[in-house]
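Supplementary Note 3. Input sequence used for the single-chain structure prediction.
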Amino acid sequence: MPTKIEEKTQELCQTLVVAPEMQAIRKRIDTFMADSSARGQYETLMTKGQALHDKQHAGQPLAPAEVAEFETGRETLLANPVARGFLDAQEELHGIQKSIQKHVAKTLELGRLPTVEDLSEGSCGEGCGCH
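The predicted structure, written as C-alpha cells, is reproduced below.
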C-alpha cells in the first residue's frame, strides 16, 4: 500500500506528464532524437568540447585554431532549429527540476511549506547571521 508521500509524488509526476509545457518540451526532445543530423552535430561538438576541456585541465595550451573550430561548430549547432529546440528544452527541464528540488528541500529543512522569502536565492533563512 503506497504511503501518502508516494501518492502525492505520483500525482506530481502525473501533473508533469500532462502539463502542456512539459508536452511541448518532450516534443522538442523527441524531434531532436529523431534527427540524426542534429544529433551528430551535437555529439561532435560535445566530443570536441570535452577534448578541449581535458587538454586545458591537463595544463596544455589551447591552439587558437582549436578554439575557433569549436566556436564555429557551436554557432552551427545553435543555428540549427532542431538542435536549438533541444538545448532550450534541456534548459527548461533543468529549471523545472531545480525548482521542484528546491521546494522539497526547503520543506524538509523547515518542516513547513516554504514562503517566497524562504525560496529566494539571497536568503539562507532566519538566524544565519547574514541579514
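The chain has a mean pLDDT of 92. Helices lie at 4-18, 20-34, 36-57, 64-79, 81-110, 116-119.
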